[in-house]
Please model this.
Amino acid sequence: MTFNILSILPILVLAGFGMLVLVVDVMSARKLGEKNLLAYLSLAGIVIAAIVSRNSTATTLFSFNETFTIDNYALFFNILFLLSTGLVILISHSYIKREDINHGEYYALLMFSTIGMMLMASGADLLNIFIGLEVMSISIYILTGFKRSKLISNEASLKYFLLGAFATGFLLYGISLVYGTTGTIDLRQIASFVAGKGGVKDPLLLMGMGLIIVGLGFKVASVPFHAWVPDVYEGAPTAVTAFMSVGPKAAAFAAFMRIFLTAFGSSHYEWQKAIWILAVLTMTVGNVVAISQTNIKRMLAYSSIAHAGYLLVALVAANNMGVSGTLFYLLAYIFMNIGAFAIVIVLSQKGDVGMNIDDYAGLGFKHPMLAIAMTLFMFSMAGIPPMAGFVGKFYIFSAAIKSGYVGLAIIGVINSVISVYYYLRITVIMYMKEPVRDFHPLTISPLIVVAIAIAVVGTLHLGIFPSKVMEIAQRSILTLR
Amino acid sequence: MESYLFYIVGTIAVLAAVYLIFERNPVFCALYLIQTMVCIAVLYILLEAQFIAAVQMIVYAGAIMVLFLFVIMLLNIKGDEESKRSFPFRKIPAILMGIGLLTVICIILKSKLLQGKQDVYTVAHIESLGNTQLIGNLLFTDYLLPFEITSILLFVAAIGAIMLAKRKL
Model:
């Protein structure tokens, strides 16, 4: 019986600050500093949670009767989630003011959603992972519909909710089949059961694994479970789109790797084939469809599908380099994607006007700094050195080759080349076309400038000096199997 | 005796579920769903899980389904309007997938049923402690963390209901 309450300290801090934000929101008068206080309060919560979850451990610790893990893997992901939520709070501040959705619930839901993600990354049994996934998803369904007066936002929320509930059903069915075959939901006990039987041959367990892949594949936005992505990304408030393209994806990958490497690690030949197909489909469909998009949010939606595909390649490889490469790539993706969405927010006007790619014409002459930052993020996502995206892709594809999946790596590189077209198109439009519109008023505040600066520094730093972070990533995955 | 009961109740549950899908009138759908829920509650009793059976009856067949019926009656949905807008070309892949899934299930049923890990919860063990106490013990020892996190889940859902449905914030 170990109920070490300190082990869930980051979760407690976030829950406490989430409720504090709600209370302060109700207590303070409507005009009080235009609710700047709430943003700072939530940022303080994020920073404190990061400080308390910072200590790295040499060994794996379990608490709550071995249902909760504290290892370096969980700590790495905790920092990752807190970083993404912190950046999203920074970019939301001016946006939710502009769109008149400046409610305290916004920050509270962001923090509750982060609690869910943390639970997903550190759950040692399937029940914890499932509850974490639900806390995360339900918060995001609500955030998606936060622009209550806009039909497109309501539609996106409802669509995401219905399809998400459906995917949850698949995941739960998979978990129940795994439980039915192995008699346990503890990941390590499942692992010893599977290893004891000499790998998975039982069709019931295979079906359970397949259904878990479907449920998590929906959350990471892989093809063919991607139908919701473009509509939901377009309809959600832009800051929420930035949030759900990084946080939940990272959390779903954290759970994916924890379940499949820890519990089903000894039978990876069985699930690697399924993920191989998913990875190829996800990369190809994401990149090819992104080419024809004219709305920047939809384009970034398809680009996020494509990035999920690259990460699945690393999961197929399933060696140390691939898994640590995934951790590195997710960190790099947070910087470049939230950075890109921050620029989109700065340049759009009230009611999300100015979301077409052609609206960026001439940005290079009018606002050179913003254009340079955007170019940087686009280059990074396309995987051009010396940006972070290049290093991430390099690790992932070389991991695939190391595991003998040369064909998969080649398909990945071809896809990466395809993606250069639509990322560079934005750069071309920014610098080589005459401006068609006035960019004023910019949606700018000190906080969003800080966020863009952090994203630029992160993208460049991870690209030029990757070794330190890569070392941490490699240390984080040692306890995984 | 028990196995006969299992087959009878199980068949009724599956039949009610099938009717639920093919029924056009939403009120009848809800009633078929109640029937499925009740049958599942009987299956729980057959598995010596009386507490779960009671919870199933109270929460699902009782509370949730009454809510369902209320909403259906308040919205006053007409039966046939939706079916005209269905896409016929989606039927063929759906049927193919269904047949595929059925084949997989048949294969599983034909293969020898794998014996899972034998846990401590045998019938004798459950009867010595009692159903309710056993579940309470588990909830507050092994599964304390998920149990507590569920409160955050409910809290989030309450915030969502207020956020999305309240007329004026």
Remarks:
- The two ends of chain A are 24 Å apart (CA to CA).
